[in-house]
Amino acid sequence: MEIILDREKYYFETVTNNKQRSQWLLLHGFMGSHHDFDTVIPYLNGMILLPDLLGHGKSRTSAPYTRYYIDRQIDDLASLIKQRMNPPINLWGYSMGGRLALGLTLKHPELVKRLVLESSTAGITSSVERLNRRQHDQQLAKALKQGNLFEFVSAWENLKLFASQKRLPLTQQKFIHQQRMGQDSICLANSLLGMGAGTMPNYWPRLHELDLPVTLLAGALDSKYIKLTAQMEEILPFGQRHIIRTAGHNTHLEQPFMTARIIKQEEHYK
Predict the structure, then answer these.
(1) Which residues pair with residue 5 across a beta bridge?
(2) Which of 268, 255, 266, 269 is nearest to 40 (CA)?
(3) How far apart are CA 163 and CA 150, in angstroms?
(4) Which residues pair with 218 in a beta bridge?
(5) Number of Cβ within a 10 Å radius of residue 131
(6) Which residue, among 235, 238, 234, has the nearest Cα to 213 in the 3D structure?
(7) Are 69 and 201 in contact (CB under 8 A)?
(8) CA 133 to chain CA mean position, Å
(9) Can you give the pLDDT at residue 268?
């Protein structure tokens, strides 16, 4: 299905697993799509809404990178929730989608009753590190705009962050690769420029404002996010951190049953 949000066309799909009243909005990561959560959808209750985020999948756009700014995408998703769901809802974001989910919850707390952040951060605290990250993303964006999508994807897949995904079945690895290669390089470049970690606000000073259950997920093989989620748990008033064994950065992809079981258990005992 398609919907126009602030003059941009978004593609989304909905799945209804049973008659339970739970509602889920799932936000994928960079170079992903609504298909990112295919492995965990069967384990969730109620209705699940899965958008392709701006510039990803079928939500392609010719808009400049300024249209990708996190505040504008937050407002897009708030409008999507109001038009297609009955808030407050359960919100689950992975990596880039987790940053977006966190920002959405802070800006529109009335729309979210439960937040799941998978392999996500509250931002880069150091202004110097943020500048370095912006400059790094600018170089990546430049390469993408020159049409080097294959080289970009190859380098991305060989990052240490995703090393554990090489243990996945070959059919699954092929699907992930094809999804990445199916993206639009200009859209990806603009996403990096407008929505990269270096341009994201520093939300650390605001984590204490989250007056709702927050589930933090990290893979046991992902040392960076084990540390970050531990730091976030210390600040969040109602944060609960879980480390998914034998998983790397993408826990719902690498360990879908284990990840979904934790989500359902917390939903039951909430």
Answers:
(1) 8
(2) 255
(3) 18
(4) 243
(5) 12
(6) 238
(7) no
(8) 18
(9) 57
Residues in CB range of 92: below 8 A, 6 or more apart: 24, 25, 26, 27, 37, 101, 115, 116, 118, 263
Instruction: Give me the residues of the chain with pLDDT under 70, please.
Output: 267-270
pLDDT digit string, tens, across residues 199-240: 999 999 999 999 999 999 999 999 999 999 999 999 999 999
- Judge whether 96 and 195 are in contact, CB under 8 Å: yes
Look at the pTM and tell me if it is higher than 0.90.
yes
- In single-letter form, the type of residue at position 161 comes to L
Q: Residue 199 — φ and ψ, nearest 5°?
A: -95, -10
Contact by Cβ (8 Å): 55, 11 = no
Question: Is residue 100 a contact partner of residue 108, using CB atoms and an 8 Å limit?
Answer: no
Q: Give the β-pairing of 239-244 and 2-5.
A: unpaired
Burial 83-122 (b: 16+ CB within 10 A, else e): ebbeebbbbbbbbbbbbbbbbbbbebeebbbbbbbbbbbb
Rounded to whole angstroms, how far apart are CA atoms 196 and 177? 21
Structure tokens at 58: 């079928």
- C-alpha distances out from residue 81 to 11, 23, 43, 57, 200, Å: 14, 10, 22, 20, 22
Residue 13, classed as helix, strand or coil, is strand
